[in-house]
Fold this protein.
Amino acid sequence: MRRLVFVFAACAALAAPAAAVAVKDLGDGSLVVRNGAAPADTPVVALRITGSVIGRVTDSGRIVIDAGPNPDAVPQVVGAGRPGDVKGSDTAQVWSGADFKFRAVGGTFTILVYGSGVNIIAAGKGTVRLAGLPDTPRGDGMFSLNDADFRSLPGAQTKLLPIGGTSG
């Protein structure tokens, strides 16, 4: 009987490290938004990510990008004119216009995209909130998160959704 208790205790002692190894790092995730649209005061995409984001707003819209104090992470926006300052932030900039492109690569970024015709591809780790038009179950854009199937953007802004990360 003592031998059985000893074997059970030894197995239990090894189970904790094995369980810790079972929680694996999934690495980078992905976000794709196609032809997104939301009400003017709600961002289609509210994203905080360490990684890379490229996108285009084909209709009218506005984008706010904050790269923080990192001088190497410089976002680029083409077709929306000069950036404006964001009230209450020393590092965020805002652009608005129609049919503009943007990219934020190789850093940690907070990005808010408003308008219609929003198209984004993002890869890395972070969180996102998504929104579509409340009265349009289809036609307000589609999204895919972490390689899942495409779905219609929700009519109300989502809770924070993970991009990449860990699973247990």
